[in-house]
Amino acid sequence: MAYTSQGLKAGLLVVAALGLGTAWAQLAPAQPPADAVQAAPAKETNGADPAPADPPSANGVVQLPLSAQCSVPSKEIAAPAPLPAMIAKLESGKSLRILAIGSSSTWGVGATSRQKNYPSQLETMLEKSMKDVNVEIVNRGVSGETTETTSDRLRTEAVLIKPDLVLWQLGTNDAVQHVDVETFEHTVRKTIKALRRKHIDVVLVGLQYTPNYSRDEHYFAIRDALNRIATDLNVLYVRRYAAMEFIARTKANMKMLSDDNFHLNDLGYQCMAEHIAQAVTANLFVRRKKPAS
Amino acid sequence: MNDVAISAAPRDRKVKTTRAPNEIDFWRGIALVSIFMNHIPGLWYEQFTHKNFGYTDSAELFVLLAGWSLRILVDSQPRSLTPLRLSLRLGGRAVSIYAAQLVITTIAIALTATAALMLNNALILQWNNAAAVFDEPVTAHIGIVILSHQLGYFDILPLYVVLMMMGPIIGLIYRYVPAALLPLSLAIWAATLTFGVNIPTWPVEGRWFFDPLAWQLIFVTGFVLGGTGAAQSAITRWRLPIRVLGGIVVILGYVGTVLAWYPEPLEVPEPFLFFVANKTFLTPLRYFHALGLVAFFGGSFVLLIKYLRPICRFFSMLGRNSLYVFCVGSLLSLSGQIVRFAIAPSLLIDTIVVIVGISAMSATAWVSEWRTRLRD
């Protein structure tokens, strides 16, 4: 019996060591090459360095650098905005539920499998940057949907799923289907306000970048509306179009789009997830500093 | 639900091949035409359908009438029929509706693909939640067959399949403990709304657009109201007060919708589904509005047939052949969406779409009855 229990202990020790090793390996950034240099200063300016004695690191959030392929200056991705509900949740609990809602980019048209769409990839990334936090992302993407229909679903799903954060990918279908800009803006504002009254944080995930629509006036009108909303309501807005355009400009030979030349491929979704992860985690630090000072 | 009603009608086909215009068929015909128009978003004529004047649309009417027809069918069966044979007779309908769902879904996919090819626009492949079919065909094909993948606007027949599968259970409860039927249905509905229970979809993660556990209530309500019995004699006795009450509900529904008074799901108390106007869960606001409509307009057919005979005959013909007409109507709605996308929408285009659509629906009904006559 004694031998068995000793063997068991040794076994457990090995498993624990292996687990720690794996966790360490996952946390360590995959060899940042020259391209990733831009990401590093961004990390510093956000005060992301989790020093052991620093209370802000108490929620255990680590900001992972962007990978070489997806590297974009953080100011191109999003302007800082508060995420109070998420911070409160991280202080009180060890789990985080996120509702990812939107259209085909949320469902993942163009991805080789469901594990490669942006919410799945983001879930893995967030779990890496928030040690010991169980992150659950519920995907409610319906292809071809415009914002008004999504808003109806969102307001019901938010009560049913009870998320701490909503990632709302929107605008592309409204732009393509020429939905009236005023109606679009009104719907988005109304929905954000209602979610906030219920203490649910919102992150807006903007339009898809595609060369096909780079000269379309309505496409830009919807983008401008999202910018206005983000500034007026101080809501975190991931400027997907700008971020992807930056990559297209700086790495012209990198293929981010799938064969239809409109939707993203696996790499495109990886960058989308990385940019959202960066925008979200950066703001967890920003807010965390304030009550401490 | 033509077959249900036809089998309920007198079987003496040599004398009469089609039923005379009646109230159920008439309202069902109205529902079919408004479903056709409501499924073309942005259509100019859509503003005249009754969803703009209250909290319900044609779906409630359609499902209530299906329950009503089931009751007529059950009442027409001899009491001596064994429970097994009764179940087989009532459940067989589910199979036909399931087959219809597969056929129209397949044609809808082909229509979507044709439009994408002809207009050279891959974005059309995403319309109405179709993306999974083209982007992830392996799982989506399984999903279509097990009804867990439903295209947008092609989501009401799956509800019917489940309701018709419940037909035998409803028929048996009605035969042995009729008084338990409505309370049981209400209890299931209330539990569904309290906990937000619904069937998951796959491979697109979500829930059924029409939650069968909630929608069974209006189906059973139709079943209880149809036929003869205690409920009917009470209705006959209290006809005027019921109509006045229905009228009040209809007016309140009208005022509420015109003023855009829709309770905000994020602001009402829990369990929130009892306080909002949600279609998926057939919330009380929608259920009581549907009952109000029935209470107010029910029985008005006597007047309508007197003064608007041709119109009544026309809509009754559509209603008599509702499954065929519904299937053709669904595909016409999708075609209408495509036409409006391909050619810039205008009142002229919308008018042509509506005229062609309604003509094709009536041609379907006419051909279907012609076939019936040939069989005599």
Task: Explain how this protein is built.
- The complex is a heterodimer of chains A (about 290) and B (about 375).
- Chain A has about 290 residues and is of the alpha/beta class.
- Chain A has a single domain, classed as 3-Layer(aba) Sandwich (Rossmann fold).
- Chain A contains 12 helices and 5 strands.
- Chain A has helices at about 1-25, 40-45, 75, 85-90, 105, 120-130, 145-160, 170-175, 180-195, 215-235, 240-250, 265-290, and strands at about 95-100, 135-140, 165-170, 200-205, 235-240.
- A 5-stranded parallel β-sheet of chain A has the order 2-1-3-4-5, with helices on both faces.
- In chain A, strand 4 (about 200-205), helix 10 (about 215-235) and strand 5 form a beta-alpha-beta unit.
- Chain A is globular.
- By secondary structure, chain B is an all-alpha fold.
- Chain B has one domain.
- In chain B, about 65% of the residues lie in helices and about 0% in strands.
- Chain B has helices spanning about 1-10, 25-40, 60-75, 85-120, 130-135, 135-145, 155-175, 180-195, 210-225, 230-235, 240-260, 285-295, 300-305, 310-320, 320-340, 345-375; strands spanning about 200, 205.
- In chain B, strands 1-2 form a two-stranded antiparallel sheet.
- In chain B, helix 2 crosses helix 14, helix 7 crosses helix 9 and helix 8 (about 180-195) packs antiparallel against helix 9.
- Mean pLDDT of chain B is about 90; it is low at about 1-15.
- Classes of the chains: A alpha/beta (about 290), B mainly alpha (about 375).
- The interface of A and B includes residues 110, 140, 159 and 198 of A.
